[in-house]
């Protein structure tokens, strides 16, 4: 379904939330809003496959409609893996459940309604958090990363993708403009872009790329690197050695 949530003018723009309405159009919304979304899914899932140790669990924090599980299933092909996707929006989990039909039965896939801040990540080999950390209140991010580091098995891996903001205001504004151009090229009108921007302000709070690196290092990760960057979007890999 096409995302037209912000196509009509609002008198008062309601704060963005992961409602039933958003879940219905989510696949179209994220495809037209996150640059290189599909490429990045493939990249993160290929790396998950590289680092996966048989018998461990892949956790997907903020799994939404299950795109990462689908991509993992394609990338792993005939290799078994266990996956748990967690999301606190029941509308998203319901949609993710339906996507299971397209996945191979040799892959053990569960979608659970839960809060990623309190979830017990047992036997974690890989933790993927694609565009979810940005919705966690900034003051709680260090605690979540500490928990992720603590929960990962030895040689475990965190794959994190985020919208980011540059520390230099001028560069930041140019990168934001590039993102708006990308959204326009994907068919969003100026009104849609501006209303969505207002709705998401204070809900999605991006860190600087450097802050994300610092948080992961402070949590204990011995090696941290950016594996993909496009203006104000960055993807990181962090290793627990
Ligand atoms: C993808 N990773 O397709 N606990 C659980 N879920 C949460 C929490 C929380 N505390 N906060 C937010 N969410 C997906 C895309 S979307 C990104 C992730 C976006 C969930 C929220 O319900 C939503 O489904 C997801 O995190 C963020 O690669 O909309 O920009």
Polypeptide structure, described:
The protein has 241 residues and is an alpha/beta fold. The chain has one domain: Vaccinia Virus protein VP39 (Rossmann fold). 41% of the residues lie in helices and 21% in strands. It contains eight helices and seven strands. Strands 3-2-1-4-5-7-6 form a seven-stranded mixed beta sheet, sandwiched between helices. The longest helix has 17 residues, at 169-185. It is globular. The mean pLDDT is 97. The site of ligand GEK has 19 residues, from helix 3 and strand 2.
Feature tags:
single chain, 241 residues, Rossmann fold, 7-stranded mixed sheet, 7 strands, 41% helix, globular
CATH class, please?
Answer: Alpha Beta
- Ligands present: ligand GEK
**Number of DSSP strand runs:** 7
Q: What topology, given as strand order, has the largest sheet?
A: 3-2-1-4-5-7-6
Helix-and-strand structural type: alpha/beta
Total number of helical segments? 8
Mean pLDDT: 97
Give the topology string: H per helix, E per strand. Answer: HHEHEHEEHEHHHEE
The termini sit apart by: 43 Å
- Radius of gyration, in angstroms, nearest whole number: 17 Å
Low-confidence stretches: none
CATH architecture: 3-Layer(aba) Sandwich
The helix content, as a percent range, equals 40-55%
**Which band does the percent of strand residues land in?**
15-25%
Question: Globular, elongated, flat, extended or rod-shaped: what is the shape?
Answer: globular
Question: Biggest sheet, open or closed, and with what strands and sense?
Answer: 7 strands, mixed
What is the CATH superfamily? Vaccinia Virus protein VP39
Looking at the structure, the CATH topology is Rossmann fold
How many structural domains are formed by the residues? 1
């Amino acid at each position: 379904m096409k995302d037209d949530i912000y196509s009509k003018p609002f008198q008062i723009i309601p704060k963005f939330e992961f409602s039933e309405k958003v879940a219905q159009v989510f696949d179209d919304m994220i495809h037209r809003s996150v640059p290189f979304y599909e490429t990045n899914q493939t990249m993160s899932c290929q790396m998950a496959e590289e680092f996966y140790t048989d018998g461990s669990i892949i956790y997907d924090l903020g799994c939404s409609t299950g795109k990462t599980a689908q991509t993992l299933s394609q990338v792993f092909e005939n290799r078994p893996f266990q996956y748990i996707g967690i999301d606190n929006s029941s509308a998203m989990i319901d949609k993710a459940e339906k996507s299971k039909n397209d996945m191979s039965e040799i892959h053990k896939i569960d979608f659970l309604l839960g809060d990623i801040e309190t979830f017990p990540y047992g036997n974690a080999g890989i933790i993927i958090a694609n565009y979810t950390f940005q919705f966690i209140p900034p003051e709680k991010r260090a605690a979540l990363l500490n928990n992720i580091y603590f929960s990962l098995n030895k040689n475990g891996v965190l794959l994190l993708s985020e919208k980011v903001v540059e520390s230099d205001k001028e560069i930041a504004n140019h990168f934001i403009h590039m993102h708006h151009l990308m959204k326009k090229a994907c068919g969003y009108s100026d009104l849609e872009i501006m209303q969505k921007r207002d709705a998401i302000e204070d809900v999605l709070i991006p860190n600087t790329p450097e802050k994300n690196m610092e948080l992961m290092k402070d949590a204990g990760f011995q090696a941290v690197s950016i594996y993909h960057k496009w203006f104000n979007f960055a993807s990181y890999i962090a290793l627990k050695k």
